[in-house]
Give the backbone structure.
Amino acid sequence: MGRKDDSLFAQQGRERRRGLSGWRSSVLLLLAAALSACGDDAYITRIQEQGKLVVVTRNAPTTYYMGRDGPTGFEYALVSTFAEDLGVELKLVTSDNPSEILRMIEAGKADIAAAGLTRTEQRRERVLFSRAYQQVTQQVVCRRLGARPSSPEDLVGLSIEVPAETSYVEQLERLQQDIPELSWEAVPEHDTEYLLEKVWQRKLDCTIGDSNIVAINQRYMPELSVRFDISEPQPLAWAMPANADGLQAAVNDWLEQYEEDGQLQALINQYYGFIEVFDYVDTRAFQRKVERVLPQYQKLFQEAGKQYDIDWTLLAAQAYQESHWDRLARSPTGVRGIMMLTRITAREVGIQSRLDPKQSIMGGAKYLANLRGRLPEAISEPDRTWIALAAYNVGMGHVYDARNLARDLGKNPDLWHDFREVLPLLAQKKYYKDLRYGYARGSEPVRYVRRIRNYHDMLLQALKVN
């Protein structure tokens, strides 16, 4: 994989923007026009003069956190790009809960809150908001084999906690108008992630969380169960002080351009696109094998990763997708071992026994490294690794076909976001009949890469916890 995976995520935006100089130039011109139009705004003038943008966020999986090689997270990546295009330094501060974040914005202690905040009417009376960049739904979350509410009325009598001064409280207050018996505790000192863990630990019946937060945390705490949606889809947006009209205009213009050019959706796919529909049984099985099976092979994955310049945790995640770390695994088509190599591939990478764990892991790593090396230099990370993994699954010939087809369809074959949309077309006759390598079940490598990324993310979390 060339670099540690978190560094790949951190670098993806920079590398992609280097390859989109035309887009970047248009963004800079757009920002310059917006700033010029708002030239008398003291707020935007101060940011320009000081050369820094102060942003408050939360330290959480969906917003900002320190990865293995530096800061990462969806909100961090988005606001970092804005600051870079604005030409100022990003100064990041963190706060534990949304209520404190909003107070910081109201008091002018930060220029932007990039913290996964829902834009609500009550909040708009206090601060300015940008245009939406993502939609989420509030969900009631309880524990498996615990409380089983299926409607707001069923919440009566349950122990429910939500973070204070949040959109969750606003929604519950609206419901309480029709259900006077409904009660909950609004806790100012805790965030959604903490309360989800409290439910998981059986210390609380239920809580409420945004769908993106719940989806990520279910993979770390698989006993969490979504009972029902308690709201319609709601917009996430950046918050700014009430007197920051010029900054709001610049942010909105930038976000509009960022979305129109496909960069916003690419970023959403980068951080959320690999998260599958939650599977409790599969997640629990994976967690058990991380504890009981992975230690037997961890040093082998580390050795292979070091030799072939691949993040060993990604290699382990791929091996789990292939064989569930079963050294004797065998498919109906005859592929064998932890890395599920064919006889031809085994000969190609020079291994004698596919059932020997060390040979299999080394062989699989060598094969993946070879595939990655055969791709055009124009493909940057992490797209390069995702496409190489697809080739591991479906074959390089079909990958070449899909790249040609992507060009014909006006898509960028160097970006996984575009490439994964083209792969399934290899199963349609109107497309594959004119391709060199013909038909392929193109949906399979898309699922294959998505599941590896999902296992990899869970593995990184498990290793951090342990």
